[in-house]
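At this stage, I put together one protein's amino acid sequence and its backbone structure tokens, which the following lines show:
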Amino acid sequence: MMKKHYHYSPFTIIQGSLLVKIFLAVIVLLLFVFSLSGLLTSVNPEYRPSSKSVNDATSIFSGKMLFSLLSFENRYFAASIEETDKKDSLEKQLLKLSANISLDDPRSLLGRELPGFAHFDSEILVAGEGTDYTNMPYESSPPDDKVVAENDADLQNVDNLDTPLKDSNSNKKSNITNGKKVVLIYHTHTYESYTPYLKGVTNADRAEHSKINVTKVGQLLQSSLESNGIGATENDTDIIKRLSNKGLKYSKAYAESRLVVQDAMAKNKDLNYLIDVHRDSAPKKNTTITIKGKVYAKLAFIVGGENAQYKKNFALASKLHQALEKKYPGLSRGVFKQGGPGNNGVYNQDLSERAMLIEAGGVDNTFEELQASMQAFADVFSDYYVAENGIKEVNGVIQN
């Protein structure tokens, strides 16, 4: 049998060698780019935002996805993946990578195509009972015209609002903060109100009022905290009126409330817990729960994800959520992270490592339901404060 002889032309050899050189050059270039970017971000923090896109891109590769890929070559890796994850982990992640669609998040099907859709652009950090991406908290749209007292809706069901609601908390604590005011309650969107008290108003975006609004919820929270031994002060500064007087837009509300908070903290160094009380725009079915025959307005914790205190504020909100889950199961809707393009990722929470924004109920809740929630929150918060600060209780008496 004659042996076959293969003849390679000089052109073929040169072409193959050139392709190898090009391939190696590309690899070297990529290594250089990544090395340079790593060096720049480590030497100068100002360059770090430029690497955010790289971080976002790589964040979609979860541990499960990595094991799924490796299991194709080595079956030992497959043993660490649950059967359900084997079926859909890789497919879901590839779909998210190629089309930016997450099957776990229906909002990704619409992206940014619908006007106003950014109001729902939050991330669930800790989900409460029944919470998912279809019923998350969301703010009302900013009013088109100036929100001033002259535009207030007529009131209804307000005959008994001046009468203090009975405090049903039978497990009161006293003197926990030793007379110090440690909690500042304030309101950035001062005029956020509730439809049961506004005649003819059914639209959450129009549920605004200069007198009957979330500042009353703040007063209920202060009273509840005080009855549980936590010194608190409620600042009802009319932020919306200040914006109007200065000719500023509604979008500047957080900048304006920031001045109020900074002034209060400068006057009282003991104020280290900051609570910005809002109300959600969701309907009553999403913001109301009955626990042991009593009706409550649900609470939601919003954490700004773009400030230096994010991790500590998230930890605080998570602890309070878990505490509510134990004593008042279902009352907390969860902890939500806000940020990204077109969204506020700060909420003045950079001013303290113990800052929080609470959505107190929804647009359809009543003050009776809101008071029940404020009492529950104050009950849980006082327990948290005692444990967090190592305060001892002897025969029911707080030892400071």
